[in-house]
Amino acid sequence: MREASVERATAETWVRVHLGLDGPSGGKVATGLPFLDHMLLQLQRHGRFLLEVEAKGDLEVDVHHLVEDVGITLGQALREALGEGRGVERYAEAFAPMDETLVLCVLDLSGRPHLEYRPEEWPVVGEAGGVNHYHLREFLRGLVNHGRLTLHLRLLSGREAHHVVEASFKALARALHRATRITGEELPSTKGVL
């Protein structure tokens, strides 16, 4: 079983993540920010992961710190659960529609952190439960930098914040599920390391 538990504590947040890549999906999610819980449950369900998240943050200041630190901690857990990455599919892509919204996520478990996501180019209106598409960028940045993956996220259509953010999490979940599957025995790199 490829699993990891990571805890992160700062003056602004405390986050604990347990991630299982191979077992049955499920697990408790409680961050104190209901919309973030809803998004993490999308990762859990559509990624088919065991994902448990407990978190507390300075929500009286803003949601930014909590959203970012959950992304960082999830990235650390993903990297630890993957180990050296022997046999993983490595590359994956997924589309996720939600009503008027369509999002494409393409990723590579390359060991090289890179995020292609420009929220200022997205014509998104509003926020959902205090979370907007700029907060999505901070979550993704934490995930990418600490999970050491390359991730491209594209909004192909959509304007309503709830649909855009939720479709983004669903596309990410489906791509992560596919990329983390064991489909061989070798390291999927000519370098011999991810």
UniProtKB/TrEMBL annotation:
<dbReference type="InterPro" id="IPR020565">
    <property type="entry name" value="ImidazoleglycerP_deHydtase_CS"/>
</dbReference>
<comment type="pathway">
    <text>Amino-acid biosynthesis; L-histidine biosynthesis; L-histidine from 5-phospho-alpha-D-ribose 1-diphosphate: step 6/9.</text>
</comment>
<keyword id="KW-0456">Lyase</keyword>
<keyword id="KW-0368">Histidine biosynthesis</keyword>
<protein>
    <recommendedName>
        <fullName>Imidazoleglycerol-phosphate dehydratase</fullName>
        <ecNumber>4.2.1.19</ecNumber>
    </recommendedName>
</protein>
<comment type="similarity">
    <text>Belongs to the imidazoleglycerol-phosphate dehydratase family.</text>
</comment>
<dbReference type="GO" id="GO:0004424">
    <property type="term" value="F:imidazoleglycerol-phosphate dehydratase activity"/>
</dbReference>
<dbReference type="InterPro" id="IPR000807">
    <property type="entry name" value="ImidazoleglycerolP_deHydtase"/>
</dbReference>
<dbReference type="InterPro" id="IPR020568">
    <property type="entry name" value="Ribosomal_Su5_D2-typ_SF"/>
</dbReference>
<keyword id="KW-0028">Amino-acid biosynthesis</keyword>
<keyword id="KW-0963">Cytoplasm</keyword>
<dbReference type="InterPro" id="IPR038494">
    <property type="entry name" value="IGPD_sf"/>
</dbReference>
<dbReference type="Pfam" id="PF00475">
    <property type="entry name" value="IGPD"/>
</dbReference>
